[in-house]
């Protein structure tokens, strides 16, 4: 019997230098929102060269823009095509989507970086740059897994659908567009930076805006007014109480290690215009975590009820209810049963490759996996190289060894999941 | 014996139409900060025509700009001359300053006004417009008092110093400049809109800015950060406790009717940049009331101590102390004894003119009187037509009857205070 693992590892070693260079090229593409065309065209060419059926398209149209899960600050995507490459299986196997995003968040202040944010420089085994860990490193693991299988002459029975999407950082419009274009599979892997932990469940999230009202007055007679800043404190307390109630309900052992599995974060506060006037309006903006199995509408309702309950103790809120608005980003939660066959396969390959048992957890943030699981009937599991601790921050980097370990695990997983034939 | 009161009232009636027109002209001058030259030159001409020694000057210079009580967002005042007119007494009497500001706050959104903000339109006995109540109406009362005495051939023994100052709305640099130019007197009247209540004491105030620190983190793992918004709530509570302590100490019966004699108002809050990030910084801006007899430095120290005390209960504040900054506007408190002879004279004239006893209170806001009392050894009493309820708001207006009643009270008060001779 062929020792596929040894052959795959050997093949990865052979391709390591070229693959590292490819990752550097990807990181050197500053594919921030609206600027993804260049990298996407290069990826499309590569997929084509690998014999895949390639689909590069600019998303848009009513169905997408009016979809209830469509979230984006823009509606025009000509600088941001989506790319999908399908490696057709020989038939009779399970299909899989390997999904990853190429959009990166802005580099921020370059002065805070020790390397140029788009240099792709390598130092002590780490490749530096915006997007290295989130998530071009993971994308490389996926691509390399396919490349290695091809190089070894392995034909998978199920289709492998490699998706290089845009707009993940703004709420998933790229993956949504791919779903609406008809792409689905029997399962999906998304190599977001989990530090190679396996996340069958992901927290969803939604942004909200609260408008708290007061009544203006001169600061010298502030008792003639009602301070929206003071009223906001009651609102903050109510939100904190709601957060506690929601989290007390969560008994899933996957969440056991997290102090607050589904936090409600109040991230922005702004109100009042003049130091010696009583503030008559305060706006609070935040992010509400949604539990993996929870309906977003149910979470919204709980927020509405918590705000309405303020009126019970304070007649001010009865007359001046806090306004609630859901705006901006939204990530659908995802929930794949821990007994899903792909979970078992993944954990087995992880053990084979690393000699250690995989850590299975629930993710504290949303990914495009929620959309795949919920809308495309494609159970999505998140596992990939890199850590979120450095994502979105200066000096983002990814450990190259981990990228190649992930490629090895993915190659073996594809064989087990899709089934295979050899020449 | 001549019934001066009847003659004064009669003379005011004669001059009423012309005086009303003059107030309209003043209100039609949009003398917002930096735009006071036009009205000041007209006032200077008028004072000159009344035989007064007129002093129109543009303030400036090191002594002013470096003075510890100098507060202004600007240091260049060429568009904003100060005007003083002195009606010399015949000698042997007490002098008095009649101080009033011509600067007005901006009109704000004209759509919220039922009349044009600078129309000076009259409806049901009220004259409408920005500055009508704060405080061109009061300035007219002062000017008319002098005019009427002159028309009746009365010569006062003490000097009457009519001051038309700028920059009151920004903290009193105009009056400070007049003081530094050498103007002082045995007492002062300032017809700010007190609704004809007599304020021998005025609350001072100072603006402050607090910077509350947190530590950023992703909202999905918000427990890894420290929310500056949550920390701000502790700061708001501490400020509220300090306000209570400071007000519990105030036993002055003049403050008996005020729920919070010297409030600390938090007027502005701003912090955080992203709904799904933990806010790492919140800024709070506010106004601290200072008691009439209190030193501003002592009030500042109490604020510093209250903020320092946060560290006792929460080590976060020990490592990340709240930053305190005193910025922007500042009004020195004022305190004239209720037994001051001008108080008695004023109350007597009020009773004569209105048939009612004057209401004596402490003002909940600062005026330029604090500077006169503290720096120029000129005890200043605040009493004038109009109400602060409409000052700084759309549809500001002043009741014309009250303006003329005030002129009558002032004319009689000048005679009693300065002493008089008749031709």
Automatic annotation (TrEMBL), chains A, B:
Tagged with keyword Lyase: no
SUPFAM superfamilies assigned: Bacterial exopeptidase dimerisation domain (SSF55031), Zn-dependent exopeptidases (SSF53187)
A Pfam family it matches: Peptidase_M20
Protein name: Acetylornithine deacetylase
Annotated keywords: Cobalt, Hydrolase, Metal-binding, Zinc
Domain Peptidase M20 dimerisation: from-to ranges: 202-313
Source species, domain of life: Bacteria
One Gene Ontology MF term: acetylornithine deacetylase activity
Cofactor(s) this protein requires: Co(2+); Zn(2+)
InterPro entries hit by this protein: ArgE/DapE (IPR010182), Bact_exopeptidase_dim_dom (IPR036264), Peptidase_M20 (IPR002933), Peptidase_M20_dimer (IPR011650), Peptidase_M20A (IPR050072)
Similarity remark: Belongs to the peptidase M20A family.
Keyword Hydrolase (UniProt): yes
EC numbers, comma separated: 3.5.1.16
């Amino acid at each position: 019997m062929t020792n596929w693992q040894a052959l795959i590892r050997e093949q990865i070693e052979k391709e390591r230098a070229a693959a590292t260079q490819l990752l550097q090229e990807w990181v050197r593409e500053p594919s921030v929102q609206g600027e993804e065309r260049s990298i996407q065209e290069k990826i499309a060419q590569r997929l084509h060269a690998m014999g895949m059926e390639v689909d590069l398209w600019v998303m848009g149209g009513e169905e997408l823009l009016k979809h209830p899960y469509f979230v984006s600050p823009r509606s025009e995507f000509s600088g941001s095509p989506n790319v999908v490459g399908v490696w057709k299986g020989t038939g009779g196997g399970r299909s899989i989507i390997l999904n990853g995003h190429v959009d990166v968040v802005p580099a921020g202040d370059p002065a805070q970086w020790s390397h140029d944010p788009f240099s792709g420089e390598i130092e002590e085994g780490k490749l530096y740059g915006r997007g290295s860990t989130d998530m071009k490193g993971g994308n490389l693991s996926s691509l390399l897994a396919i490349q290695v299988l091809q190089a070894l002459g392995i034909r998978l029975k199920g289709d492998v659908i490699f998706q290089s999407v845009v707009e993940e950082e703004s709420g998933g419009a790229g993956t949504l567009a791919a779903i609406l274009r008809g792409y689905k599979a029997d399962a999906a892997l998304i190599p977001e930076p989990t530090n190679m932990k396996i996340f069958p469940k992901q927290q969803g999230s939604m942004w909200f805006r609260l408008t708290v009202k007061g009544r203006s007055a001169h600061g010298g007679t502030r008792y003639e007014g009602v301070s929206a800043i003071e009223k906001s404190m009651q609102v903050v307390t109510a939100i904190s109480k709601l957060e506690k109630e929601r989290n007390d309900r969560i008994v899933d052992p996957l969440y056991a290690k997290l102090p607050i599995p589904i936090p409600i974060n109040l991230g922005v506060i702004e109100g009042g215009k003049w130091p010696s006037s009583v503030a008559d309006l305060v706006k609070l903006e935040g992010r509400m975590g949604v539990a993996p199995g929870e309906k977003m509408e149910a979470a919204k309702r709980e927020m509405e009820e918590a705000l309405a309950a303020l009126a019970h103790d304070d007649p001010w809120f009865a007359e001046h209810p806090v306004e609630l608005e859901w705006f901006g980003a939204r990530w659908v939660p995802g929930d794949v049963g821990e007994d899903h066959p792909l979970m078992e396969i993944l954990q087995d390959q992880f053990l084979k490759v690393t000699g250690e048992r995989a850590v299975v957890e629930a993710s504290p943030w949303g990914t495009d996996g929620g959309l795949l699981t919920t809308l495309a009937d494609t159970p999505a599991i998140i596992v990939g190289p890199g850590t979120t601790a450095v994502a979105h921050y200066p000096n983002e980097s990814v450990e190259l060894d981990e990228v190649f370990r992930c490629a090895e695990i993915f190659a073996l997983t594809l064989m087990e999941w899709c089934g295979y034939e050899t020449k």
